[in-house]
Amino acid sequence: MFRLRAVTGSRYLRRFLHGGAANRDHVLEQLGICSGEDQVLEVVGKNKAKLTVNHVGCAIGMLWHFQKEKPQMLRTVEFIKSHPEFLTLRVLAENKIELMDDVMLVDMLYNVLRLNVEPSDSLAQQLVSEAWLRLYRFPMPSLSKFAVCLSDQHLQHSPPMGQITDILNQKLSSIDDARILTTLMVSVSSLVSPHLRDKLINKADHLLDTMDPSHYNNPRRMVQFLRNIKYSYRPLLEKCNHILLRNVPHLNAENISIIMGLYQSIQFNNCDFRLAAKQRLMELVDSSADPFSFTKLFVALGPMAGEDTKESCESATLHRMLYLVSPPSGNSSYSHNVTLSLYRIASVVHKNLHVYKPMEIARITQALILLHYQSPELFTKLRNILVQFLLNSVYPYEVTMLTRVLSMLPSPRLDEGVVSRVEAVLPQCNLNDLNTFAMAVAKWVRNDPSYRHSTPSKYVRLLQTLNRCGHERLRKADRLDLVLEELKYMSGEWFEEMLLEETMVTLQRLEDQISWTNVPEMALFLTRTNHLCTPLMDRIASVAMENINKIHYSATYATLLPFAVLNYDPPGVDELFDICIQPTCIVRLPPGSFDPHLLVLLAYALAVADCFPEDLVREIFNVNFLAKLDSQLETLPDALNKRIRLRLMELNRAVCLECPESQVPWFHERYCLQLQKKGDPVQQQIHKMLGEVLGGINCARVALLTTYFYTVDFECVLDRHHQAVAYSEQSQLQISEDGKVRWGSDSVGKDRSEVPPGAQRVAVDFLDSKSFCKNSRHMKGEAMMRKRHLEILGYHVVQIPHFEWNSMELSTQDAWKEYLRKKIFTGLP
Predict the structure, then answer these.
(1) From CA 644, how far away is CA 202, in angstroms rounded?
(2) How far is CA 754 from CA 697, 715, 725, 757, 828, in A?
């Protein structure tokens, strides 16, 4: 009786068990006491002749109900799918489609897809066709479920989905269920117009205030919608994050992993959520016994964990994964052998290659390569499977992924079939995919044995097609937002050499579309490419100043960055910085509004531009802030962690030099000692030339560390008559065993005061291409800040640009020496 009550509590039976004793349905009663799939199928087998449309709907609903209650690894979908009685249910369902009411029709489609019935199966196709006919009369819950079914079948751009988008637009004001709304938002995301996008965001924002905050999947789907439409709308993101943060104690590893993935793809970093997620994942480590769920936990925790946590997780992960592959028999010490565990896991992969889908094979191959797994036999099989998938694929994104992974595998020659398939799909690809193909072709060219003699024609043809497709896509582009989205992750030689100039032409052609919503993306692109385009910079400045109240304060850093980095002052530059900084004033923002690392990056960009807001400096160089920053840095990827620490040091140095009144202490000496660069062999040649110019090798010092740890390429001291002063023997150049350049004095900058009265210290700095904008000889902001700081330290700074030093005019030793003489002695006070 208890079992009957428990099962009949499901809506699949509640819809049918509503009659009295006179209307008893014995088949439904039998289904009601079933406790598993096999019993449901047994009831179906015994009552084939009696099954009505209600029985069929109830039975298929119960089969999926039992499956979804189980962990993923314990589900038996394949057993059900191949069972003869399930085939009976499918045939009966297809014959009774017209008898199904609207709710049952959509439920039937949803359930059979969950039970792995192929979208190409006649039952699924008939259900979709019938649902399409009834679309405009569906209740909203059924409409949202049908939209999910279409998405599951990759029909996001189909006519039915277009009609669902139209219905959503018409009935949006009547939707008061956040679950229904967010499900529809995700499903139709590829079809929404900017106008409907804004309406959906406003409605979602309203429902977040009225919904039960424990329903964390609603804000998760809202973030997913923003990710799908590639629109980082910060007010809604922060409201969603606030609800998700409250629910962290109830999230499992998979939920956290999904949310973190969404945040990463939309470039949304929140310190409080990362710290709370890390704490929750740490709590789940010991309680997670399921190897599959633990693997998800490890993947989510790995990037955020410190070394101790990583080591303990790796040990636990190996134990669980080995248990999954081959349960240990008594002695489990082998579970800590990384190599053995990797080979065991690869063995399981090897045996199951036939069941994996294209993207899964691609990810498995990539993982094995990154783990340095050694097995020519397995990699040969993987390569053959990847090639076969690629030849059969019709999806550009899939061909791109498969090609990228194929290029990582060693191969003496590239199949002509692969070249033809790639070439055929190129016209359908966006700029980012074209860039991926270009990098893959570059690898193939380098690895091809015939490359030593000449570039094979098949690669030349591919590169020509790539160039043509890239230029055509840019010339045909008419929406700035789409162009910026495709450019977001573009990098590499092919892009810079073949497309960058055309890209700048396109961006200037679409200049009128620059608005407050895309100003940050445009600014970041110009910064990343180091390309100084004054018309675009002026337009960014104008739009930012006119719309500062609409631009989210977190976008201030991105907006100001190119002006600081590229050292460009647009008309009204002071007004631009004042207006942009005002909304970020620490005293006006709620606590925690700015992530610590973002505040450091913002302050550094302002420092490069010689701007030091007092409240910002005071906030950052505060013990509590630095402690929170330290905690956050532990959760960030290593590369970002190192970058933030470097920027904090450079900011600390800038404040000490340019704002001594702030009384901020210099606390990076130990950090800087660890960063000292090794000596450069080229310096010896230049050092010798400087010695000849100045009157002796002991008149110049090389790679000198100043106070606050700037490394000056060469230093000399000139007396009041502009004659070089020789350094004492004790301070001559020494090169330690580790290759680092040192002088007789161990203290950094200790002998700086030991110059004759009236003498002048001269710093000779060689500037490489990184110190200049790519498309001009305009010096960037960091080189200007370095010059400013060295002058504060008492130097006359002589900067030697790479394009002058390496020019044709300076092709002899005498020409170089004469150049150095003029640069050092001209312009001295």
Answers:
(1) 35
(2) 19, 14, 11, 9, 20
Which of 215, 211, 169, 208 lies closest to 188 in space, CA to CA? 169
pLDDT digits (tens, 9 = 90+) for 654-667: 999 999 999 999 99
Higher pLDDT, 447 or 798: 798
Q: Is the pLDDT of residue 103 over 70?
A: yes
Helices 122-133, 84-95: axis angle to 10 degrees equals 30
Q: How many CB atoms lie within 10 A of CB 14?
A: 10
Residue 269 DSSP code: -
Give buried/exposed letters for 273-290 (b at 16+ CB in 10 A, else e).
Answer: bbbbbbebbbebbeebeb
d(CA 412, CA 235): 52
The per-residue pLDDT for 370 is 75
CB 498 within 8 A of CB 474: no
Among residues 534, 601, 521, 608, the alpha carbon closest in space to that of 569 is found at 534
Q: How far apart are CA 485 and CA 506, in angstroms?
A: 14
Q: Where are the alpha helices (DSSP H) in 371-479?
A: 376-392, 396-406, 416-425, 431-447, 457-476
Q: Could you give phi then psi for residue 347, rounded to 5 degrees?
A: -65, -40
Distance CA 45, CA 33 (A): 16
How far apart, in whole angstroms, are the C-alpha atoms of residue 203 and residue 181?
9
Tokens read off for 597: 């690392």
Q: How confident is the model at residue 697 (pLDDT cuts 50, 70, 90)?
A: confident
Residues 90 and 117 sit within 8 Å (Cβ to Cβ): yes
Q: Number of C-alpha atoms within 13 angstroms, CB side, residue 592?
A: 10
Q: For residue 766, what are the CA distances in angstroms to 509, 688, 788? A: 37, 15, 15
| Alpha-carbon dihedral 26, 27, 30, 35, rounded to 10 degrees | -160
**Strand-strand pairing, 734-735 and 711-718:** unpaired
- The structure tokens listed for 40 are 């449901």
| Token couple for 663 | 């009384």
CB 27 within 8 A of CB 55: yes
- The C-alpha atoms of residue 591 and residue 588 are separated, in whole angstroms, by 9
Measured CA angle at 307 (ends 301, 308), to 5 deg: 90
Radius of gyration of the chain (CA): 33
Gap between the Cα atoms of 172 and 704, Å rounded: 67
Contact (Cβ atoms closer than 8 angstroms) between residue 225 and residue 181: no
∠ CA 46-48-49, nearest 5°, is: 115
C-alpha span between 762 and 824 (Å, rounded): 8
Beta strand segments in 440-545, E? none
H-helix or E-strand spanning residue 800? strand 795-801
DSSP annotation of 409 reads S
Residue 582 tokens, joined: 């005002």
Distance of CA 608 to the CA centre of its chain: 26
User: Which residue type occupies 596?
Assistant: P
The rounded distance, in Å, linking the Cα atoms of 220 and 224 is 6
CA distance 218 to 256: 14
pTM tops 0.90? no
- For residue 759, the Cα-to-chain-centroid distance in whole angstroms is 53
How many Å apart are CA 553 and CA 581, to the nearest integer? 9
Strands of the 711-718 sheet, one edge to the other: 701-705, 711-718, 760-767, 795-801
